[in-house]
Amino acid sequence: MTKYVINGVDGHFGSAAAALALESVAPEDLILTSWDVEAIRHWEDKGVTVRQADYDDLAMTTAAFEGANVVLLISTMKVGPVRQQQHQNAIDAAVAAGASRIVYTSYLGAGDPDASWYTLTDHRYTEKAIRESGLTWNFMRDSQYQQAITQMQAAAAIQTGFWYTNSEPGKISMVHRDDCVRSAVALLLGKGEPDTAYDITGPELVSFRECYELVVELSGAAIEFVEITDEQMYDMFHAMGVPRWATDDFSASPFPWCSEDMVTNGSGMRTGGMAVLSDAVERLTGRAPISVRDAMKADSAGWPAAPTR
Q: What is d(CA 190, CA 187) in angstroms, rounded to the nearest whole number?
């Protein structure tokens, strides 16, 4: 029987992928990994094999992947050279362990030579390494998660009364994380064509102004939409303690991402690079992707109350 590895099962994406895979895969054919193995130990109660895989440790990761035929490589958080080496170790471990196929969660624009947002450096590096590894592959080039806007941005705008952006008038096909999970598991289990990349997007192109208008509509909050330049966005993040580069000190940062990542993501949207619309979610999963409005409605229950101003 085919054996599957899902990594990062201590996180939202990995745990959701594991739960969904178990609906189709026998527990004995599933290997779940995390750098924090105790955080995923409860999966053993379902008959699943649980192993520690720290991508900074090639030997450990190779042992964790032992016996696997297919690996779902969920990209790690540390943007920059550290992430590139972690991904390289995971790829090398998959090869050394005898796997034949890998599914990788990449990012929208990785296949576009004109796209230049910061995070693409890591994803292009990883895609190239996978192509050169000899493994059969699928790349999921995920658009931005809807939750970044329907949860984090919406809550911040309601609390502060301001929505700052450097992305206008650009549009993006944001995708719900659940649709990404369903697409990942479909590819892991053999759906799709070999050696093929898929743009994983939502069902429509939206601007952040449209998202802002939805938040105002659903929350009743008084929010001002403020368009700012890239430099003003850098200054704003600097004042918040967000480092410019991924290799800088994050100890005082409220975000796990550097400002170069977030600002260039916005500028890439502004210049039209993220206006990509795909039907891959429905083709892979048999279900239409979740719309931004539906995600907003679902997530609005968790928004803070609109303050009196």
A: 5
Q: Is the dihedral of CA 200, 202, 203, 205 positive or negative?
A: negative
The Cβ of residue 36 has, within 10 Å, a number of other Cβ atoms equal to 11
Same structural domain for residues 137 and 161?
A: no
Q: Count of domains in the chain?
A: 2
Beta bridge partners of 141: 106, 199
Adjacent-strand bridge partners of 121: none
- The reply to whether 232 and 165 lie within a common domain is yes
SS3 144: coil
Domain boundary (124, 141, 158) is at: 141
Has residue 258 been placed in a domain? yes
Question: What are the pLDDT digits (tens) for 7-55?
Answer: 999 999 999 999 999 999 999 999 999 999 999 999 999 999 999 999 9
Residue (of 25, 61, 55) closest to 43 by Cα position? 25
CB 199 within 8 Å of CB 278: yes
Judge whether 272 lies within some domain: yes
DSSP state of 302: G
Distance CA 89, CA 98 (A): 14
Q: Convert the pLDDT of each residue in 164-200 to its tens digit.
A: 999 999 999 999 999 999 999 999 999 999 999 999 9
Q: What is the pTM of this model?
A: 0.94
